[in-house]
Design goal:
The structure is a single chain. It is built from ten helices and ten strands. The protein is 30% helix and 29% strand. The mean pLDDT is 93. The strands form three sheets. It has a six-stranded antiparallel β-sheet with strand order 4-5-6-9-8-7. A two-stranded antiparallel ribbon has the order 1-2. It has a two-stranded parallel ribbon with strand order 3-10. The chain is an alpha+beta fold. It has two domains: 64 residues, Arc Repressor Mutant, subunit A (Orthogonal Bundle), CATH 1.10.10.10; 181 residues, Chorismate lyase (3-Layer(aba) Sandwich), CATH 3.40.1410.10.
């Protein structure tokens, strides 16, 4: 049986989703809500904590609780990688029209604000093991953020790594000024003759760091999803690795697994 604070959270959630409380509206005070539901203020705070964790409400210190404006949802599926590969050999005039973020959000190129930073890095023990290279091997570290131009926070925080010796034959792959690259990473690798065979994604969840919560615009109680994406070429070699931090209140992940028939 649901606890009282869970029942109250469900009522408030229903009212918000039904439009009885609109984005930007201030909720009644905690005392007023306690009187309405005939419970204590701590019980109301528990209920509010639930819907804050879902991203429906934000608490503004000294002001009160407000209905949060819905943010664009990220629909991330494992089919996105084949979609990206299918585009690799299309002309640049086609690839430049859309990208993976547009694929995941339903937005278009002109809706987005993109930011990329490149820097030199060396392989830590974790990265060296993933790439099967010695610790200290030179890497290219790439950081990406993309946001909807009507919102303040990016959809994700991406940190991507390439082995410098693998990609240095094309100097364009070492320069952030060439971003956003039409077609994304698979198209970049195609310029040096690399075809991807498979991509693995390991998904975990945890509370955000203070920096992540601030960057992603998270309310208290919202977790982040961490995706470790590893890209293998047709020789079985790891050629790219990304750590992707996704906000738990606006990310939907769908995995479709075809099953062989008997």
């Amino acid at each position: 049986m649901a606890k009282r604070y869970e029942q109250i959270a469900d009522t408030l959630r229903t009212e918000i989703r039904a439009g009885q409380l609109n984005p930007g509206d201030r909720l009644p005070s905690e005392t007023a809500l306690a009187e309405r539901f005939k419970v204590s203020v701590p019980t109301i705070r528990q209920a509010l904590g639930v819907i804050q964790g879902e991203g429906l409400v934000e608490k503004r210190h000294g002001t009160g609780n407000f209905v949060r404006r819905p943010r664009t949802t990220i629909h991330r599926t494992n089919e996105r990688h084949q979609w990206e590969k299918d585009r690799v050999r299309q002309p640049q005039s086609e690839r430049v029209k859309t990208g993976a973020t547009e694929h995941d959000t339903g937005l278009v190129v002109d809706d987005l604000v993109f930011h990329a930073e490149y820097q030199a890095a060396t392989a830590t023990e974790d990265l060296a093991q993933a790439f099967d290279v010695p610790v200290g091997t030179e890497l290219v570290e790439r950081r990406y953020q993309t946001r909807y131009n009507r919102e303040d926070a990016p959809f994700s925080l991406v940190r991507s790594y390439l082995v410098r010796d693998t990609v240095s034959s094309n100097p364009d792959l070492l320069d952030a000024a060439n971003e956003p690259w039409p077609g994304g990473t698979q198209s970049q690798l195609h310029t040096i003759g690399i075809e991807l065979d498979r991509i693995t994604e390991r998904v975990t969840a945890r509370p955000p760091t203070v920096e992540e919560a601030e960057s992603l615009g998270l309310t208290a109680g919202v977790s982040v999803l961490i995706v470790r994406k590893t890209s293998f070429d047709t020789q079985g070699r790891v050629v790219e690795l990304s750590d992707i931090t996704l906000p738990g209140d606006r990310t939907e992940m769908l995995f479709t697994t075809p099953l062989s028939r008997w």
